[in-house]
Each structure stands twice: as C-alpha cells, then as structure tokens.
C-alpha cells in the first residue's frame, strides 16, 4: 500500500503537535466514517468504519467521537482536529447549539472525550483539504455496521487491522 498524501496543511496547523482529519459519508449502501491521525510525520493511522444507517450529520459526529476516543487510547492528549462539516465543528466549538435530539447524546459523548485532552482544537477546512478522510469515509459506506479497518504506518513498518462484527 502506498503512503497516503498528507492532506493539504491549512495555515492553522501547528506541526509540533499531532493532527487529525475526519469525515462521514452517507450513500445508498449505508453510512461510513473515516479519519487520519498523524501522531508524527512517520507514525500515523488511516481508519475507516462502518456506521450502519443514518444521515450525514450522524456520520460526521459519530466519526468525530470515534476519532477522539481512538486518539485518547493511543495516548494522544494534545491534538488539532480538522473536518469539512461546518455544523459539526460549530457544535464542537459551542458556536451553535445542536437541536437534533437524536444527535445530542453523541455530542455529549464528544464533549466528555474532549474534556480528557490537555489541549484540543477543532477547525473547519474545505472538502479539497480533507480528501484523505473523505475517501476513507466513502469506502467505509460499504462496510457493515461495526466493521473497522485500521492501517498503521510506523516508520517503514506497516500494519493492517480488521474488525468484523459477529452477526447471526
């Protein structure tokens, strides 16, 4: 697998701390999420996950939730997050209020994870700067709910992890 191009770096990026890009997608098959987490230039993760069915804001928000949890479990306590969903970024930054009661619990979980970081910022970027996460999320729409694919690049070593849910 070839090394993914790092998304275009907005002027907002502080290259001394990890950064992440996330996106959610909905298509006829279902919805999926994708994110990239760059712990360093030589250590990063590409993750795609099947989310079942839902609308786009659900896919975006649940992907952000998974990104934050994944980052914390990988001992990443300082992070810059970038996404192309302005509404999700505004909810995250408390600029606007989420009135969708079906998404409120997920946003509450996002805020719980957010409080566990030493420093965290979340910025809106345009879709063309988010092509890596965008393509992962679209590929993930073909996954069944709960199915994950994690690609880790650590120096020259590459690792691929799959999780497929058990279904009767």
């Amino acid at each position: 697998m070839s090394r993914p191009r790092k998304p275009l770096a907005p002027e907002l990026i502080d290259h001394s701390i990890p950064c992440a890009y996330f996106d959610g997608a909905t298509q006829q098959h279902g919805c999926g999420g994708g994110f990239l987490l760059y712990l360093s230039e030589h250590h990063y993760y590409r993750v795609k996950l099947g989310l079942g069915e839902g609308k786009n804001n659900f896919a975006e928000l649940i992907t952000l939730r998974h990104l934050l949890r994944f980052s914390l479990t990988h001992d990443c306590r300082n992070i810059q997050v970038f996404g192309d969903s302005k509404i999700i970024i505004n909810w995250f930054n408390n600029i606007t209020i989420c009135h969708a009661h079906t998404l409120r619990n997920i946003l509450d979980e996002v805020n719980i994870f957010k409080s566990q970081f030493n420093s965290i910022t979340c910025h809106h970027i345009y879709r063309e700067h988010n092509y890596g996460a965008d393509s992962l999320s679209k590929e993930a729409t073909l996954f069944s709910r709960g199915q994950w694919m994690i690609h880790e690049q650590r120096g020259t070593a590459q690792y691929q992890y799959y999780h497929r849910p058990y279904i009767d």
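The helical segments are 56-73, 86-92, 101-114, 131-140. The chain has a mean pLDDT of 91.
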